[in-house]
């Protein structure tokens, strides 16, 4: 209900919704292009993912490679990818959180906030 008893301006509401949709699309495109990193083992393993969570690269320092202990290397790879994904989620929250609040604060489907 609008204060003063008037009806909402449907054209204005439609324009606001379209602008929010455009802003959201622009932010999602920016996330897909932005890269964040995560590392493990003091930087022996580094993972790079996009802000939308796509794994782009994985760097492994030769010092981390021990043929007798591949389990530790695997653990470092998993930890680095997890750290990169956590950074991507933080970036998503930063970029998309304000837009989600504009949609009523209920969050966005498929996103962890």
Concise summary:
The protein is of the alpha+beta class. It has helices at 10-33, 70-102, and strands spanning 35-40, 45-50, 55-60.
Tell me what the structure shows:
With 113 residues, the protein is α+β, with helices and mostly antiparallel strands. Helix content is 50%, strand content 16%. It has helices at 10-33, 70-102, and strands at residues 35-40, 45-50, 55-60. The protein has a three-stranded antiparallel sheet. It is rod-shaped and about 75 Å long. The two termini are 28 Å apart. The mean pLDDT is 84.
List the helices and strands and how they pair.
Elements: H1 10-33, E1 35-40, E2 45-50, E3 55-60, H2 70-102
Antiparallel strand pairs: 1-2, 2-3
Helix pairs in contact: 1-2
Please describe the structure with a list of short key phrases separated by commas or semicolons.
alpha+beta; three-stranded antiparallel β-sheet; rod-shaped; about 110 residues; 3 strands; single chain; about 50% helix
The amount of helix comes to 40-55%
Order of helices and strands: HEEEH
Molecular shape: rod-shaped
Structural class: alpha+beta
* Sheet of most strands: 3 strands, antiparallel
Identify the strand order in the major beta sheet: 1-2-3
The count of strands amounts to 3
Number of helices: 2
Q: Would you identify the regions where 5 or more consecutive residues have pLDDT less than 50?
A: none
Write down the Rg: 21 Å
Average pLDDT reading: 84
Distance between the termini: 28 Å
The percent range for strand residues is 15-25%
